[in-house]
Amino acid sequence: MISIKAYDETRDFEHIIRSCEEEGWIKFYTTKKEEFRRALSTSESYVAYDGEQYCGFTRCITDGHFTIFCCEIIVDREFRRRGVGRLLLKTVNDKYPTCAMDVISDNDDFYKANGFKVLANGMRKV
Description:
By secondary structure, this protein is of the alpha+beta class. It has five helices and five strands, in the order βαααβββαβα. The longest helix has 15 residues, at 9-23.
């Protein structure tokens, strides 16, 4: 049975780093690892577990009234297509029911299957 828990650095950080490594999200486990550690603690961060086994995480930021931005979500490969990602997003959305949730996606099919719609093109100043 999948359960969603609030992020706990001691319990979850190394699992999340391993997930980032498996996905090739290099900056999160190399040059920006300590910044990522702080960001997880100061954001709306949640982890999924199947019993005692870590399954995935999400990190979101929100103003608490209008918008939630899903910064990262990774579900470990063996737990994909089992509703884990949906539960992670639902947990954040349920905490802030008046907020719209936004993402910048490299997996549109996942988000579309979970009720997201393409609204416009995103931009980023780099």
